[in-house]
Write a structure and sequence with these properties.
145 residues, Arc Repressor Mutant, subunit A, 3-stranded mixed beta sheet, 48% helix, globular
């Protein structure tokens, strides 16, 4: 959580906790540069919601109910929360997704977004999305076809 609060500060976003009405778990207010998340969230939910809302801040999203913005915020959260090296270790052990998510401290949804948006599978090897430059394929795990 400390890393997320540091990230929020770097983005110029303040973070607040409140009791939110159902079904809201959190929101980002672009004009006030603030994120609010629900007081009743579990620690894992809190981290995932905060990272998601920081994704909206990072991308400068202003509106609501935009599926593309929601998907971009989820992808940002997954990239921030999931350590590719740790994911590769757990995936190589053959754990179920729900167990991997629990070990990584993320929701199953965020784990699945990570797999969908941040991984590439090539010839039996899984890579995190290529980064330009040295070490671009440093996180790899074998998987059975």
């Amino acid at each position: 959580m400390r890393d997320l609060l540091t990230l929020a500060a770097r983005l110029g976003v303040t973070v607040h906790v409140a009791h939110l009405p159902e079904p809201y778990r959190g929101f980002y207010d672009h004009e006030r540069c603030m994120v609010v998340y629900d007081f009743a969230l579990t620690p894992i939910e809190r981290a995932c919601v905060l990272a998601h809302e920081l994704g909206h801040a990072f991308h400068g999203h202003r509106g609501r109910n935009d599926p593309e913005a929601e998907a971009a915020a989820d992808a940002y959260a997954a990239g921030v929360l999931v350590d590719p090296e740790r994911w590769a270790q757990l995936e190589a052990m053959g754990l179920a997704d729900i167990d991997i998510a629990e070990e990584l401290g993320v929701t199953l949804k965020i784990l699945r977004v990570f797999v969908k948006n941040h991984l590439t599978r090539v010839c039996g090897t899984t890579y995190t999305r290529a980064r330009l430059g040295r070490g671009q394929f440093q996180h790899a795990a074998r998987w059975a076809s």
